[in-house]
Every structure is written in C-alpha cells, then in structure tokens.
TrEMBL record:
Regions that span the bilayer: 7-33, 39-72
UniProt entry tagged with the keyword Transmembrane: yes
Protein name: ABC transmembrane type-1 domain-containing protein
Species this chain originates from: Elysia marginata
Domain of life: Eukaryota
Assigned keywords, A-Z: Membrane, Transmembrane, Transmembrane helix
Length: 75
C-alpha cells in the first residue's frame, strides 16, 4: 500500500512539474512575441522618422535651389 501512495505522489509531482514547465514556456513565448512586436513598431517608427527627415531635406534643397535661381535671375 505504501508503494502505491509513493507512486501516486511521484506521478502527481511529475505532472505538476510538466505543467509548470509548459506554463513557463508559454509565458516566455508570449514575452518574446511582445518584445518582437515592440521592436517591429520601433523599427517602423524610426523608418517613418527617417523618411520624413529625407522628405524635409529634399524639400529644403529644392526650395533653396529655387530661391538661388530666383535671386540670380533678379540680379
């Protein structure tokens, strides 16, 4: 009878450990997924900022060139 109790306790402990490992793995997977999503969002934001900066530089360059041409033509 004692051995049966020991076997039952061991089986319960093994099941508990397996469940804990599975839950921990799920949590880690969710955290990793969240971090990846945050990284993607950051990359997209940085790309958008860079694109806006490039557009601003191009516009400024064109405006500057037009101003120079106008000044040269006026003089």
């Amino acid at each position: 009878m004692c051995c049966v109790v020991v076997v039952i306790v061991v089986v319960i402990l093994v099941i508990a450990v397996v469940l804990v490992v599975v839950v921990v793995n799920l949590v880690v997977a969710v955290v990793i997924a969240a971090v990846l999503v945050v990284l993607v969002v950051v990359v997209l934001v940085v790309a958008a900022v860079v694109a806006v900066a490039v557009v601003i530089v191009v516009v400024m360059t064109v405006v500057g060139a037009v101003v120079v041409v106008v000044i040269v033509n006026v003089h």
